[in-house]
Automatic annotation (TrEMBL):
UniProt superkingdom: Bacteria
Organism the protein comes from: Chryseobacterium joostei
Protein name (record): Por secretion system C-terminal sorting domain-containing protein
Keyword Signal: yes
Secretion system C-terminal sorting domain mapped to chain residues: 306-384
């Protein structure tokens, strides 16, 4: 049986580093099996390493969420924060933390990249057994809604991790099944669907890149995985162990086998090799970007726009240049449950508007912005992500 080198992570942190600050990786040592070495920043354009954030040799201080105090861990077990079998990680953009899970453990760890302190989230929802490869949590990412999602190899558990009242809460959303059209390209089979990594799009769908190079689109609404295709342009023996979206909307993939990184077009699944380091052993990737970000708006008139889509300051800009728009406009912001969380009047003069709208009191997460005219007709809707 081929090595099951399944992913862990890269992510975006608010720290000062020389590498591009939107990509991170979990790397391993040059050994035949999985052997965690460090979490590091990376330049996703040039495929070069930056600062090492946390290593297998770093001193660690573990705080138990359940026991509300510091705990000591057995470093020789699978259940510790520096276990050799790292396989899943995500960036919690709402709290600027790294969230990860050792592959053979149900423990969830939250690493503060500035203080290096680690919170242990004792997880009674995931049913992980070190001797059952089907149960291993090998894919993890942040969803556009701000929650963390993770999937085991066989798709029998889709976990959702949210933070409520300062505590991480874990829910099992159910079993992901093959779409009837998948045929021999099964999401739930070792050879075609296990391992790899996952990314999210702005509609909170997920794309899972299996170790074999197959790509599946997973719908949370109906818990189905549809085979999209197989990555082209990579070597036949390339093991896909990490995936994350870069600033250009392309997916970067990496391998645990000591191979180059590739950039993949999500529409064509055509890959091209990136320059830079060629022999990194990468178990997972993560970033602050989402797929299909430009498709997150709908407008019935021209020259009306809201930007930026990803809000990392305290405001958005509304621009209008359309002589057909008469009267003032009303901007309304809803959370993803449909609750109205903010209203703002927009002053239009001669069909022109350039206004900065400050997002008062909005916590990090995804929102829907709606702009209507004086009659109540919706002129534009757009999804934004607040990640300050």
């Amino acid at each position: 049986m081929k090595k099951h080198l399944f992913p862990l992570f890269l992510l975006f942190l608010g720290i000062n580093i020389h590498a591009q600050q939107d990509f991170f990786a979990i790397t391993g040592k040059d050994t035949p099996g999985i052997n965690f070495n460090d979490f590091r920043a990376m330049d996703a354009v040039n495929a070069t390493s930056g600062e090492k954030i946390f290593t297998a040799e770093s001193s660690s201080k573990i705080f138990s969420q359940a026991r509300k105090g510091s705990v000591a861990e057995n470093k020789n077990s699978f259940n510790n924060s520096q276990a050799v079998t790292m396989a899943a990680l995500a960036y919690d953009f709402s709290n600027n933390n790294l969230v990860y899970m050792p592959m053979f453990s149900s423990n969830i760890y939250v690493l503060n990249p500035q203080t290096k302190e680690i919170t242990l989230v004792e997880n009674n929802v995931a049913r992980v057994s070190s001797c059952d490869i089907n149960s291993h949590i090998t894919r993890m990412t942040a969803g556009y809604d701000g929650n963390i999602y993770a999937v085991n190899n066989a798709g029998t558990q889709l976990l959702q991790m949210s933070k409520k009242g300062g505590q991480y809460v874990v829910n099992d959303l159910g079993i992901i099944k093959d779409d009837p059209s998948n045929g021999k390209n099964s999401f739930t089979a070792i050879e075609t669907g296990f391992g790899g990594d996952m990314i999210a799009d702005v509609d909170n769908n997920f794309y899972i890149f299996s170790a074999s190079g197959n790509v599946f689109k997973v719908s949370v609404k109906d818990l189905s995985a549809k085979f999209v295709g197989k990555i082209a342009g990579i070597p036949d023996n390339y093991s896909v162990n990490g995936s994350a979206v870069n600033a250009q909307g392309k997916v970067v993939i990496a391998s645990a086998k000591g191979a180059p990184l590739y950039e993949v077009d999500l529409k064509s699944l055509q890959a091209k090799q990136l320059p830079g380091e060629q022999n990194l052993h990468i178990y997972d990737l993560a970033s602050k970007y989402f797929a299909n970000d430009k498709k997150s708006s709908s407008s019935i008139i021209t020259n009306l726009e809201i930007y930026p889509t990803k809000v990392d300051e305290h405001f958005i800009n509304v621009h209008l240049s359309n002589k057909n728009v008469k009267g003032n406009l009303k901007l309304t912001i809803f959370d993803l449950s449909g609750k109205n969380v903010m209203n703002e009047s927009l002053s239009v003069k001669d069909g022109s508007l350039d206004q900065k709208v400050y997002l008062r009191g909005l916590i990090n997460g995804a929102y829907i912005v709606s702009i209507a005219d004086e009659s109540g007709k919706i002129l534009l809707t757009k999804k934004i992500l607040v990640a300050e």
